[in-house]
Amino acid sequence: MNNNLNTNSISQTKSPLLKCSNITLGYGSKNIVNNFNYTIHSGDYLSIIGRNGCGKTTFLRGLAGVLHPRAGKIELSSGLKRNQIGYLPQITVTQKDFPASVEEIVLSAFQGKNLLLPFYGKALRKRADECLELTHATNLRKESFRELSGGQKQRVLLARALCAAERLLLLDEPVTGLDPESSQNMYNIIKDLHENKNMTIVMVTHDIDAARNNSTRILNFNEIMQ
């Protein structure tokens, strides 16, 4: 297996944040990622590229803890905790038509942090408001999620992921289906989170130009799956 990386730059001074040691990931009887080693460092903006079906999303699901390794292990380093990781998967048809307000969608992120509360207190609502502001979606708070445009929905779902993300944000093709203006808005928000909010970013993308322009590292899954 070829684990070579196509990189813009790799800092040797960054501390490891998440380490994959000989991990194998798959579904049913099929392994998709085999015996893979990789380390993500604090402060990375890592873009994962490659053809459809090469294992990009499978790998991201493994990092998110949604898919457990069949072999090997994924270690959280530098004091990173699982509930400090935000995950924005690809949006489904069901999610697009979910009958809830934007505020309700964003606040639901806290249930993923095992906060089994009968209501959301001031601190959680303040955090939700902060995340909506970071994604330029404050004005959408009371809107029906199902009535939003594609770009607006993605910014709301990004805000939801941010509620769970304190140090690491995992994004699976966050601009798929968006028009050029909405795509650029998303990239600008993600870049700001990385550069000004000290967020480590791992993003699956087919947009090679965006990966080259924004990332500090690029992981080419076409090489891994050779």
UniProtKB/TrEMBL annotation:
Entries under SMART domains matching the protein: AAA
Keyword field: ATP-binding, Nucleotide-binding, Transport
A Pfam family: ABC_tran
Record has Lyase as a keyword: no
Superkingdom field: Bacteria
Domain ABC transporter: 18-224
InterPro entries xref list: AAA+_ATPase (IPR003593), ABC_transporter-like_ATP-bd (IPR003439), ABC_transporter-like_CS (IPR017871), Metal_Ion_Import_ABC (IPR050153), P-loop_NTPase (IPR027417)
GO MF, one example: ATP binding
Family: Belongs to the ABC transporter superfamily.
Designated name of the protein: ABC transporter related protein
